[in-house]
Amino acid sequence: MDKHAKKSVIQRNLQMAAKSGIWNHVMAFYGFPGETLDEALETRQFVLENQPVIHSMELFYFVAYRHTPMVRNPEKFGITIHKQEEYDLPLDYYYTLNDPSTLSCLDAMQMCEEFYKNDFHPWAVRVNSREHVFLYISKFGTNQLPQIYAQQTQAIGSPAGVSGLITWPVAKNGSEDGAEGMSRVVSHGVS
User: Which domains does the chain show, CATH number per domain?
Assistant: First the structure.
């Protein structure tokens, strides 16, 4: 990925920032072209080991966004881009790996799903977006905000394991009885 960042430096920066009262929000992803399963598991392990100094977290899978080096030079990254001519302004493209021994997009998606189901509980917050977290940080002037975290009520991995998460209404287009109306969505698929 050519980030030239060492884990030890990242870990030290997280520790120093947390000690200084700075909120550490980590964004990571699985499935960068060429990433192996072992490397993805290493990312997971790093995040879990550094949980005490990571205040909030987002994990996703690699997406081949338009105008990125991966889309401009797919052969360098070992991928084949599949452009769909019927879309004139796509933001991202479907891709396939040229080396099937690396982590596929589907594998990366499944790993993300497993992370949110089994490992995400320390970062489950009772606000809908990370931007709202920064309002709390501004108000209280600290990265110590236990009041925004959801409480663990069941065993980790249980679908009913986290309480206190914010839900929001969404429109539903016809339910089983054919009626239109509103439904509620719970953040991170837990209730």
Answer: 1-118 (3.30.750), 124-191 (no CATH)
